[in-house]
Amino acid sequence: MKNQPEKPKVKTRAKRSVRILWRSFIVFLVSLVLLVVAIDHGLIGYMPSMIELENPQSALSSDVYAADGTILGRYYVQDRSNCKFSEVSPNIINALIATEDARFYDHAGIDPIATVRIFFRLGRAGGGSTISQQLAKNLFPREKKSFLTLPFVKLKEWVLAVKLERNLTKNELITLYLNIVPFGDNVFGIRNASLTFYNKTPDKVTVDEAAVLVGMLKGNTMYNPRKNPERAKNRRNTVLDQMVKYNYLTEGQADSFKDHETPLNYHKIDYHDGIAPYFRQVLESQVKAVLKDMKKPDGTPYDLYKDGLKIYTTIDVRMQRYAEEAMQEHLTELQKQFMAQNGYRDGSIWTKGGKSIDNILTASIKASDRYQSFRDINMTEKQAMAMMAKPNKTKVFAWNKLHYKDTTISPIDSIKYMKTFLQSGFMAMDPFTGEVKAWVGGIDHTFFQFDHVNVNTKRQVGSTIKPLLYSFAVDNGFSPCGIVQTSPQSFPSMPKPYDAQPGESFGDVPMKYALAKSLNNAALYILKQVGIDAFVDFAHKCNITSRMDKFPSVGLGVSDISLYEMMGAYTMFPAGGTNTQPYFMVRIEDKNGMLVKNFAPTQKEVINPNTAFKMVKMMQGVVDFGTGGRMRHRYGLMNQIAGKTGTTNNQADAWFIGYTPQLLAGAWVGCDDRQFRFRSEALGQGAAAALPIWAFFMKRVYADKNLNITPNATFKAPDGFDDCGIGTDGGGTPEDKKGKKTGADDEVEEHGARTPANNNDDYE
After folding, report:
1. How far apart are CA 366 and CA 385, in angstroms?
2. Residue that wins the pLDDT comparison between 450 and 26
3. CA trace torsion 215, 217, 219, 224 (10° rounding)
4. Are 30 and 128 part of one and the same domain?
5. Beta carbons within 8 Å of 676's beta carbon, 6+ residues apart
6. In this predicted model, which residue has the larger pLDDT, 399 or 743?
7. What is the C-alpha to C-alpha distance for residues 283 and 279, in angstroms, rounded to an integer?
8. Which of 235, 269, 303 is the last residue of a domain?
9. Which of 419, 435, 456 is the last residue of a domain?
10. Residue 710 counted as domain residue
11. What is the per-residue pLDDT across 495-537, written as a single tens digit (0 to 9) for each?
């Protein structure tokens, strides 16, 4: 009885505890709400606006497109491109939802069931994040992660997730997520992941391929099918099981996919690899120059590597491939012949080549990255040279399927080895529109980045300059059938008559014959008649921008001019006198498809149509009976072709620029250093070293009927054309027609006598 009064005290204490708990809970809820409001309004930490969430500033790669829409390459910091929801296969969507967020369509950004797990796994990875939460995390990555900060970070992600769900549809959320997630190998977004790992767009991805791609999201490296194929396969099977669990697949369907491998078609577009790497290198600098002074609508400058631009070009993928194949087909064999020469075969060129060769080697060694790295760590020149002489394992270029071979060689010997490779440049274009169809700047971009088509890469053009000289003369009254002298010519600037063909006598010949046979003294005679200054001015009118010194030898091609410039100048012949500058950019669009800039060719008439067609007829003679005769009798191309060979001093440069009624193409061959050259004109002349690339290319083009480039096309004479008796033989003589060769395969060297065949003299 005495203890009964104490019962109310117990009840009072219990009630007080309950009230405290409720008050604490209410305080917690109010604090949580206030915290959420503060986070949502950016009062605690940074909270992005909805505009920022809908338009994430992810770095997007800029894509380069060929004429048919094929992706040639990308420029990027992160290899990422966006796609639309409609461009993603349902297989990918289903695999993603089944694996990452099975209740995606039922929650509003936070999955209550999964969230409970967070409190039991605090500080450990995985388990509770919805797709919306993962999206928030990817849009604004966590700067720090610790046991104490994780609750706040998670809360912020929840707020972002709910905010995203309120403002975006489920399809928009899925699309945004798939566009930003990483897949490893510096690939971001489902579009580039599909293209990289399976060489197909996301809408074409199969169920098992989708399972592999979605499986990679758990660990980009661990489940990368290229680096860890077995782990990727196991993860793929887990994703397939999830798809069965949530009724996206039947067990039988999943088992059928598990029973076989999911083959990769890895197609990472590397800067050096893929089609047209030299072109992409030139395009990169051109686009940057175009964008330099342009601003985006928001006033900020364009960034080629982050803004997701779309660059549309004129390149024809098929012609580009044929050009690369033609170069390889010819140079694989030509390199063998080149290295069979004395001095190259035994390496004595490096010991007997004289001071010029020594200087080339020394300069190349000191310019190499390896030598510079030694000097950067304070090695003396002597120490660095000693290190350069030590053999080590490396890869060097080789004309094989892989384009490289593994070897043990010193850096110095590696430089010697690489220096003796023949290089080449090739370009094909439509002479009427100016569209560049193919651009091959060298033999292999991985080992040789120097581009030999680029307007800034200049080499002596040799006799390919003569059609410009002849066309200027014809446009000023000369007749292709008129007589020109082939004797030495006197010029005020020279102490004695200039004889560019010593020991050779042709007498007076028709102008058309002189061009077909590439007679140097005849070119000097014509140059003397039209005037050196006037001819140089005309060449510049043809858009030759390189310097041309006003000496008599300018008419023989001693000037250094790029293949790009020469191609532009030659357009006037098949195009009826209209000079059309080559162009390769059609337009640039921003990431939303809005036009940034359009491009169009520059055209002007430089010679009249009659002159142009007379030049066509004369240049047909080069191929029919002149220095380009092997086009017919060796390569079997019997259709209408006009062109000009070119060979420079001591066979350092070989050229052929030719055209059909539909296509213009040009090839140059030589070593990067002019001291390395053919010792025999039989191998080093333009007809032998450069023309075959042109022939191999055109054979492939003609074989592809889908290109609509036909060997049956004919050159069309302008109305009222007066052929002055030039006829169809292009300057051929009766002896030529009977099959007698009068130098059809031999081009006279510009300076002095022909180099004797198989000359194996010392290099000095």
Report:
1. 9
2. 450
3. 60
4. yes
5. 349, 419, 420
6. 399
7. 6
8. 269
9. 419
10. no
11. 999 999 887 878 999 999 999 999 999 999 999 999 999 999 9
